[in-house]
Amino acid sequence: MEHSNLSTDTLKSTETKSEELLPPIPEAKSEEGESPAIEAIELSPPVKLSTHPYRKVVLFGILAIGAIAIGIFGYRWWQYADTHQETDNAYVTSDSYPINARIAGTVVEVTVDDNQQVAKGGLLVKLDSRDYEIALEQVKTTLEVAKQQAKVAQANIDVAATNGLGKIQEAQGNVDANDFNIFSVQASVLEAQAGVPSVQAQLAQVRANLVKAEQDYRRYEMLWQQGATSRQQFDIAKASYEATLAQYDSLQEQVLQAKARLQQAQRNLNSAEAKLVSTKGTFQQAEATNQQTEVNRRQYKSALAAITQAEVQVKNAELQLSYIKIVAPAAGRIGNKNVQIGQRVQAGQTLMSVVKLNPWIIANFKETQLQKMEPGQTVEIKIDAFPNHIFQGKVDSLSPGSGAKFALLPPDNATGNFTKIVQRVPVKVVFDADSIKGYESRIVPGMSVITTVETK
Predict the structure, then answer these.
(1) DSSP class of residue 436?
(2) CA distance 107 to 348
(3) Where are the domains of the chain?
(4) CA 2 from centroid of its chain's CA atoms
(5) Can you give the pTM of this predicted structure?
(6) Fewest Cβ atoms closer than 10 Å to its Cβ: which of 22, 128, 250, 359?
(7) In Å, how far are 66, 248, 313, 396, 427 from 376, measured between CA atoms?
């Protein structure tokens, strides 16, 4: 209630003040002199502007100057827009090297910190080397064993080659001697075989003579006993018979000896043939010894291959040992560091990044802005982080494809409903060296940029 009364009083006071401020309005009376009917306000006559000529001249002059200024500004703006292309879809980038562990190991030393500047080849992280030192010693031992095996194989080659050659020569000599012996024995066999028939023929002839001599002896013996012949003739017949009998016995003995010689020659031939077979076996053994030499040569080659393999393993172990020291691939600043002493890292794990101090700009211009854009053109660069400083640069190159073409999932205009969208093409812009002096370490990748390319 108090609030309502306050509002009513306030309104009344406001109306009272308004009435005091407004001039009184004269009352209008009707022609018949009756009470006032309608409130009327008398309007003052319109004010007429001065029509002096100099004022029109001044007005037209101001309008002309304004039109000229607008024309000059428009011409200059059109000329600038025709020779300059600008975009704020740009950012600073730089070479960034991810530092990865090439082997698994335990971190024993970290020599850098975030944002620290490092030189090329400077030590960043060191891993525990003991496991890899032991592995190197093992492969070195394997290499030494392979070298010793190669020496043994080479010595076996020399020994086997010498023995094999001597045995082959000896066996070949024995084979040749046995061949000659066989020929000789075969001749003896043939001779013995020829001697037996000859003696047998003589024996047959002597047998016939013996029969005649025996008959003469018997006849003369009877005649002598009868006294029909003389003692002398009987003795002659007897002596002839005994001589022929002795000759027959001798020839029989010769036949037996000839047969014995033939059998002996045959046995000698068999023995010689068996010996030839034995010497040929010895020759084959000698050739086998020579083949063993070839086997030894192959073993030696295998030992040499084992040496080469062990040498490669040694080099690999030395290389693995060298990976315990992780160094900077280029000069730059450390970023994204996520490694600590005592941490167990795996091969391929990213430990930090080294950002090289060579910034450039990727400006994504619309495809409709590229008609006159070429490498080498001057570029005005405004970085949001340094609004009061304008950098200079030049166009280095244009991308071979639009950003959409290199996207993870590039659009396919052949599918669905097609809507034409102006594409953007990345343009690489490099700084002038003098332009960024003093800002090299302050211009970092990711900063927003406005680039204006002069396309004259």
Answers:
(1) G
(2) 14
(3) 2-71, 131-306
(4) 95
(5) 0.56
(6) 22
(7) 39, 137, 52, 6, 12
Torsion over CA of 199, 200, 206 and 212, rounded to 10 degrees?
A: -170
Checking DSSP bridges between strand 350-355 and strand 123-127, what pairing results, if any? unpaired
Mean pLDDT of 293-319: 88
Token pair listed for 24: 């009184």
The tokens for 21 are 């401020």
Q: For 412-438, what is each residue's pLDDT tens digit? A: 888 878 888 899 999 999 999 999 998
Q: How far apart are alpha carbons 44 and 176 in whole angstroms? A: 163
Angle formed by the axes of helices 231-322 and 130-226, nearest 10°: 180
CB-based contact 97:330 (threshold 8 Å): yes
pLDDT confidence tier of residue 73, bands split at 50, 70 and 90:
confident
Q: 237-251 pLDDT, tens per residue?
A: 778 777 877 777 777
Task: Note whether 158 and 293 are within 8 A (CB).
Answer: no
CB 422 within 8 A of CB 368: yes
> Which of the four CATH numbers 3.40.640.10, 1.10.287.950, 3.60.110.10, 3.30.70.580 does domain 131-306 have?
1.10.287.950
Output the six-digit token pair for 406: 């290199």
* Burial tier of 419 (Cβ tally within 10 Å: 0-12, 13-18, 19+): exposed
Dihedral sign of CA atoms 163, 164, 170, 174 in order: positive
The single residue listed with the structure tokens 């990213």 is: 350
